[in-house]
Specification:
Layout (H helix, E strand, L loop, with lengths): L4 E7 L2 H14 L5 E8 L10 H16 L4 E5 L2 H13 L5 E5 L7 H4 L8 E5 L10 H11 L6 E2 L2 E2 L6 H10 L1
Helix pairs in contact: 2-3
GO cellular component, one term: plasma membrane
Main location: membrane
Organism: Ovis aries (Sheep)
Amino acid sequence: FRWNWIVVLASGDDYGRENGHLLSQRLAHRDICIAFQETLPTPQPDQTMTPQDQERLEAIVGKLQQSTARVVVVFSPELALHNFFREVLRQNFTGAVWIASESWAIDPVLHNLTELQRAGTFLGITTQSVPIPGFSEFRVRRSRLGRPALNRSSGGATCNQECDTCLNTTESFN
């Protein structure tokens, strides 16, 4: 794509920090420069945004508006991005190429923000699956050995992911 000038946005949790740092290290060996990096405020699931978090989002989107970089790589859980993209739309930031990490690339809340297409083009990425040698054979062998009886609560059956039904469902995806 010949992108050589990008912005990196990351959540302040381990996922955002570690992936943002890893990307910075890898880009240092290529002809790609980071215009700026910012940490997105990440509210807890049961909390509303604080006024300080809202001001921070406004400042980040304002910085995006002023930057000549139009490729934005975002490492963040989807929860932090709901308010962020609402702010992107409110400030009418358009024309960017957004690189979506696997944690939010298929988020239904963001997909239902119909106006989001105005913000630009979205490309979702995911990590490559790495097989663990012998893991599938271990699971199948374990299913044949038998397991302790499941706990039952108040007369109804429960599933603790150790039952044959769960194992058979998992095997069907392999």
